[in-house]
């Protein structure tokens, strides 16, 4: 498989699919099987059928639902805690949820096996993490939560349309550019974090003009990462990965969605603080 910047897809086993038995249908492919031969079938005795676009859509929808439910409930609770001047509880829950989400993601990435319960648990943990942050931001900037959700949904849908229509082709050159750009912004963010501990301000996260430009760049790179995610899910479908692997595709898409939402929330806070 072609390389990707999403860690969820970088460790996919190459021999998990049915090979020639997988349906030649993906996000960017017409419905139906190989012309003149009908829909290819899984090998006799296979324990699972090949995954389809519907499998990815359903599993991703369930994962998003888990994140939204826990996120909304946590955001409501967090606002109550802020009103009661008990921000320590909010911060504590945020850290715990972040660590749980990180732990689950690492297990799934290196275990290299799809798991519906673990994907939903990861999504729920990320929902709690994002909900805690959003609740605090919503108290400071009323209406920012809805704006961030709509912005994230808009970018996701726009990139899906771009990919499905073929307006932007996922070529090896584009893939290398996206991976390089992603690595670059991650290094800058880590450097900014480390230097801030020593009182050095790079201006990337202080809400100034440079911070706004940096956030716009990160949002753009996160958006282009969706193209790689869609392409990897598409290849999993075309190579006949069993349907249970749709949970892994959903997990990969969720990681990018979480990153994008956080960056959009940060950008909106910069714009509203001016």
From TrEMBL:
This is Bax inhibitor-1/YccA family protein. It comes from the Bacteria. PANTHER family: CONSERVED TRANSMEMBRANE PROTEIN-RELATED. InterPro entries: BaxI_1-like. Keywords: Membrane, Transmembrane, Transmembrane helix. The chain crosses the membrane at residues 56-78, 90-110, 119-137, 143-162, 174-198, 210-233, 245-262. It comes from Amycolatopsis alkalitolerans. It holds the Pfam family BaxI_1.
């Amino acid at each position: 498989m072609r390389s990707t910047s999403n860690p969820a897809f970088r460790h996919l086993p190459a021999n998990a699919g049915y090979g020639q038995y997988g349906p030649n249908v993906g996000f960017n492919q017409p419905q139906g099987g190989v012309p003149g031969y009908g829909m290819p079938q899984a090998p006799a005795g296979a324990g699972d059928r090949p995954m389809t676009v519907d499998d990815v859509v359903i599993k991703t929808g369930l994962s998003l639902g888990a994140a939204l439910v826990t996120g909304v409930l946590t955001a409501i609770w967090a606002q109550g805690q802020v009103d009661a001047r008990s921000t320590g509880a909010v911060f504590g829950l945020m850290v715990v949820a972040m660590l749980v989400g990180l732990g689950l993601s690492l297990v799934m990435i290196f275990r290299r096996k799809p798991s519906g319960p673990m994907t939903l648990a990861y999504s729920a943990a990320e929902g709690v993490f994002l909900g805690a942050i959003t609740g605090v931001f919503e108290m400071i900037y009323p209406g920012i939560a809805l704006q961030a959700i709509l912005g994230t949904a808009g970018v996701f849908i726009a990139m899906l349309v771009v990919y499905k229509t073929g307006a932007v082709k996922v070529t090896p050159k584009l893939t290398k550019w996206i991976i390089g750009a992603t690595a670059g912004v991650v290094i800058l963010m880590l450097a900014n974090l480390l230097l801030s501990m020593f009182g050095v301000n790079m201006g990337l996260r202080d809400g100034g003009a440079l911070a706004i430009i940096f956030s716009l760049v990160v949002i753009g790179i996160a958006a282009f990462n969706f193209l790689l995610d869609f392409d990897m899910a598409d290849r999993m479908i075309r190579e006949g990965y069993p349907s249970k692997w749709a949970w892994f595709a959903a997990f990969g898409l969720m990681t990018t969605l979480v990153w994008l939402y956080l960056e959009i929330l940060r950008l909106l806070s910069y714009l509203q603080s001016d």
